[in-house]
Amino acid sequence: MEQVIKKYNPKALLFYMPMAHEPDLRPLFRKLSKRSKIYVPFMEGESFKLVQYRLPLRKKRFGIIEPNNSHFYLPKIDLAVVPVVGVDGKMRRIGFGKGMYDRFFALLQKRPITLFVQISKCYTKEIVTDNFDIEADFYITPEDFIVRGKKYVDRNFDRRCRSNR
Length: 165
Fold this sequence. Notes:
This protein has 165 residues and is α/β, with parallel strands linked by helices. The chain is built from three helices and eleven strands; from the N terminus they run H-E-H-E-E-E-E-E-E-E-H-E-E-E.
């Protein structure tokens, strides 16, 4: 994952605050915050807005830990790391059914490079999602590293990254 992030050299990254069943990437935040701004979701109604990752953190509904709210405009996100429950044959996200990421991504003027992450691979070749579900450029699990077809990506991604999951 670090090689993908390094390749694109994003100035602003969207991460997430992990729940117990999701990969905990917070150690990576500290490393990346030296050269990029790290944003995380702040739950608001049926979607979320972005807030800059900073301490202190507090627990909110669904047991999700969040930084305090902040009031600023929607930044341009260059790269997004998104947790998934599963991924289908179109590389679309299967989530918890609330559609928060779908609604948030629909507000963005430009789609960021998107990495889906998961603790254990749950992939089906069947198409079980809707057209509005967000798509990944990369799907990363401990077992696999899948890159969506080059026709979709700017995506001269060096396949050697496969060995450095």
